Amino acid sequence: MKKTLLMLSALIAVMVPALLCAEIVLESEGNTNTFFRDGEKIAVQVMSTDTIFHNKIVSSEGEEINGPVAMYYKNGVKNADLKFKDGLPHGDVVIYHKNGKQHANYTIRMNVMNGKARIYDEQGRLFSISNYKNGINAGLQKEFYPETGKIKYKFNCKNGVNHGLAFAYDVNGKFSYCLIYSNGKLINTITKPLAWVFWLFS
Q1: Going by C-beta distance under 8 Å and a sequence separation of 6 or more, which residues neighbour residue 124?
Q2: CA–CA dist 184, 162 (Å, integer)
Q3: Closest listed residue to residue 90, CA positions, set 59, 68, 60, 73
Q4: SS3 (DSSP) at 12
Q5: Per residue of the chain (202 residues), what is the pLDDT tens digit?
Q6: Which residues face 75 on adjacent strands?
Q7: How far apart are CA 10 and CA 65, in angstroms?
Q8: What is the pTM assigned to this prediction?
């Protein structure tokens, strides 16, 4: 009896860590998220919209998902690494191109994007840096020429729309033009360098 208990304890000691470390894989189709562990379905969520983020759980069955979750392309290449809390994306997110290079990284707080989001092209070169607050663009946004790393556009957003000065630059980093927005509405275009300064203080 004692030997049997020792064998059972040893088996549990091996199985429990393996179960806890087994990868959870998310397959998303339409507004339905299905989670698998070792090829077996462990949870299904029906979401309020067909986007992965910025939506709510309408109904769910199975386990409440917590911890690291992975997504894959149909060819088996990893699509994304996410973290979940209480059944929702929460934490750092990394998205990959089909060639395996990083496509994007950002942070989700209970399924809502907050902070910086970096986007990269298929060669792994930086394409843009955006700032989010409660799921919408807020603050400084930048777009780059991936081949040189120089800024292509920089502008500010307020409540998800362009607001204030928006600058455009050529591939060599020289000023091209300035657009002036007010709550998403374009109110002026300036093509002469530094002329926007005189407009700003006029």
Answers
A1: 101, 102
A2: 5
A3: 68
A4: helix
A5: 544 434 434 433 434 444 446 899 999 998 899 999 999 999 999 988 866 667 788 889 999 999 999 999 998 999 999 999 999 999 999 999 999 999 999 999 999 999 999 999 999 999 999 999 998 999 999 999 999 999 999 999 999 999 999 999 999 999 999 999 999 999 999 988 766 565 554 4
A6: none
A7: 27
A8: 0.80
Residues 76 and 58: beta-carbon distance below 8 Å: no
Instruction: Please report the DSSP string for 127-184 in residue order.
Output: EEEEEEETTEE-EEEEEE-TTT--EEEEEEEETTEEEEEEEEE-TTS-EEEEEEEETT
Residue type, 171: V
Closest CA to 65 of 90, 97, 43: 43
